Write the structure tokens for this entry.
Amino acid sequence: MKKSFILAGTLATALFVSVGFGACSTGGNYSETFKGVLSEETFDSKEEAATAFFEEEIAEESLSHYTVSYEKGTDLTQEEIAALQLGDVKVEDIKSAERGTVNYSLKNSESASVRAVASQTEGKQVSVILLGIEDSFRYYIPQPGIGEQISQSYLDSVCDLSSYKNFTMTAKSTSSVSEKVSMQGQSQSIKYSIDLSLTLKVTETAAFIEATTSASGNVPGAEGMPTGKQTSTMYVVVEDEQLVAYVKGEDGTYSRNASLFYGYDSLAELFTYEQPDFDHTLFEKTKTGFKLSADKFDEYVMDNFGEIFGEFDGLKISGEATYFVTEGRLAKGTTKISASNSISEGGTSISISCGASASVDYTAFGSTVVTLPAEITGSAS
């Protein structure tokens, strides 16, 4: 148990780093481009339309696990209706338009997931716009209100890969773990830290990735933990409609790797490199973008680190992740996570503390350049 405790703490620290690469926060010039989306499906009543909006855009469980109600707010003016993104629908065809609120809470159902019940039993609300068109109704997905959970369509807009065909991402993170085990008058200590920096440049024709790891400290009994400074460099190109990596070796030459990015469909998809999957149900809208909801933090940890942290009883974990949006796409970010615990049992005492912080910048949209080395240019042509 002691060794697994030590190793798990160290692995958790390493995982914190990758989470940091997926976070964004305050800074820059905030601006949104999401104007809203009109549903294609029509409904017989406003209540049905509001419920469908909740089910498609907000809920993380099936609809049967929720208590949902709709409450009308104010009517939209003609100017506000004209500003909506209506597609093929004409303004003169709209018979009614109103803002409303969907109130919802998750039932304490055995069939609902534990993570959802733990974070969402208290009532919440989200804004929606309902339009009466001829003899039916449609819902319109607006930009989420401050403090509301973001919708799937809003997140899809922010992460639309068409906005990331040409950009530069730079990320830096630092992680550390400190642990002490005392048993029968003897003690063993661990102090280990990892600093990571990552540069990702993506263009329409090629990508560049360079990652540097600097690690120091001691981890008794854990072989293979990185120490010292290590740098990996690669270029990514498209060959026969597949992403192919050229990885720089110690001798300075590049070796071809056709499987490293298997499953990626385009260079723009490298936007997701070293980032966890985004889940709109975990985030709430802020004045400058969106952030991890405080009541969803435990769910976030369970989803990403459940296997590791499940070994610890009473581990105290805290953290935050904040996203900043400029011109409708990710711009900057920070993540902070810390965990600690102390256990004393049968003459053995263990104390551990670990944490990580990271920052990410997305810049040079439309002006990023990647120049391939001659040997790769020849192979890729």
Observations:
- Helices lie at 2-20, 46-57, 78-82, 114-120, 152-158, 297-309, 374-380.
